[in-house]
Specification:
Length: 284
Amino acid sequence: MTDTITEQATAAASGAAATEQFRNKQRTETAGVDTRRVDTLVSELLAAAHDIIRRHKVTYAEYDVLKSWLIQVGEDGEWPLFLDVWLENVVEEVAGENREGSKGTIEGPYYIPDAPILPAEATLPMRDGEEGTPLLFQGQVTSVDGTPLSGATVDIWHADNDGYYSQFAPGLPEWNLRGTVIADDQGHFKIHTIEPAPYQIPTDGSCGRLIAAAGWHAWRPAHLHLKVSAPGHQLITTQLYFQGGSYVEDDIASAVKPELILAPTPVADGDGSEVTHDFVLDKG
Ligand code: MBD
Ligand code: FE
């Protein structure tokens, strides 16, 4: 027997990393929430739960299952995953309601700030022979008034060809498929990467158990995550999907919008595909 041990990705390990990441980045404005607002929101949330219990005559057995499941979500560190999959899309909808320019969508649990800074044309950090269809993702960042945004930043992160994110699964280089691309003086960027695979919610954790118990599927369509920003403009957090890909019409995290679906075309004189997609930022 050889001693080559490939560490398996586990729900608890990626959950612990996501929980730690969230604690590091927690938005500053969460510091003080007004008492009356807490009263209103929590009272209404509890009233909705009470109503469900009465209407469906929830039993003590079911109450105990809920209690033990909630305890387990915490132990698995899966609160970031649970919340970002099943609630964040509505928070984002409300947050983006009055913003002009390109559509945003949810951030999800796997963003890490301060990825390596890369020039306007760059290849994302990846392993030698990184698996997956090569993808050239290029475009321009402009303001809502049409002005090209010099020095805009395109912060990009995505899963690999197995659906794993660096720093949330074992065995991947620290910054694999993550980078902070600085656009040129006309806001143009050209990013060489690979197409990510669809993402499956870990089946061995509490979110996976909920999905199995409810008979749902566990998948998000393949996606690129982005944070696009420029001086004097509002940052947008978004994702881009691939036309015709699995689960584009049925994302477990309800985070697909029609404007966010890319249609890459095969590269004429090489491997893989390419797509041009521009970002328009609102002033702020
Ligand atoms: C992901 O990759 C993701 O983007 C979201 C929103 C939730 C879980 C995994
Ligand atoms: Fe993701």
